[in-house]
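Internal ticket - ligand job 401, T4K:
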Amino acid sequence: MKRGVGDLALFGGRSAFLQPLYVGRPSHIDRGRLFERLNWVLDNQWLTNGGPLALEFEDRVAELAGVRNCVATCNATTALQLLIQASDLSGEVIMPSLTFAATAHAVRWVGLEPVFVDVDPATGGMDPAAVAEAVGPETTAIVGVHLWGRPCDVDALEKVAAEHGLPLFYDAAHAIGCTSRGRPVGSFGTAEVFSFHATKVVNGFEGGAIVTNDDGLAQRIRALHNFGIGLTGVSAAGGTNGKMSEASASMALTSLDAFDATVRHNRANFELYSAELSDVPGLTVVPHDREESHNYQYVVVLIDEEQTGIRRDLLLDVLGAENVSAKPYFSPPCHQLPPYSDRRPVTLPHTERLAAQVFALPTGSTVSREDIRRVCNVVRLAVSRGAEVTSRRRRMKGEQA
Ligand code: T4K
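stdout (structure tokens):
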């Protein structure tokens, strides 16, 4: 237990953790079941190209999302590209800037232009009023992001999209198993995209999926993710190789088997973090709607520098010295990142404020209650003595210079 600022590892104390504690550590996996599936794949001698395990995974994800179609892919970035390519679009795509760069890069990679809009300061979700304002003659689609697994204002976005006759897609990379008014994420808009990257609550080493009730769209995506084979319509679009392998499907199915247990663990972690940090002035553990289902895969915290006297990045340095790898998801926001920052500058005040305040703390099934108590001990100490930590750090830097 650290009691004074001098105990912090940044100032010479002993690190709270011998081994690094990561955000995004892959969750526990039933190795017996995984190896059983991999053995089956090897016996079956069908390793990719729409293999039986990838198809089984697609059925299970479609059911979870409450839709008719799921196409599993090698990752979510490719899934977003496939979705846009299969929709035969050109022009500008309205999206939030407060997201992982992949959302914007996927759009740009297929020759469209991301147009960034601000978020609702209370939720971090894309602001539907800002979307309505941004629609112009070049707008070809809207992409919402269920940031940190918190669903967007889906009804309001649906309305804006319908008014302007635009397709509405969701980047649901964080949001498998989450609901909005009891309806599962995956069933909103024209189509949604999940990520099954190693760091996600369901992981296929790498992996992604597009889910939709649009049968024609699903058919085109299925063809495009296999070099365009079987396409007659938009065959000019060619195709790519975006398939999920049977090795990934083995992992993804085994991870999906553990989904409920992983979420229970994540939820208990989230509640412990909230209890430990709720009375620290200037810190907010971003809450989840208790009426809805949530996967709790990110524990997201906001820090108010004015109230605490310590900047988010200095707090991350404090944690880093303790061997705790907290992550500023997502900072800088996309509009401040190359190649987008080279364009005409835009100002998105709520996005910029949240991006300066946000960080994610380690969670997942490998993070124990004792780990969380130790992380919270450091966070409480550094934040409650924020001004002292800041001035000591400045002195230290001055002495080193
Ligand atoms: N849209 C959104 C909104 C997204 O957040 C993402 C991805 C995408 C689209 C695209 O999905 P994919 O194409 O990836 O399917 C990580 C992930 O690589 C990325 O998938 C994820 N979002 C993003 C939020 O997080 P980084 O740059 O933070 O990765 P990295 O290597 O720093 O690892 C993150 C943490 O996880 C570290 O603390 C280390 C730990 N880790 C990582 C890996 C790979 C492990 O402990 N074990 C591992 O195997 O992007």
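Auto-summary: The mean pLDDT is 96. The chain has two domains: 5-26+258-326+362-397, 31-257.
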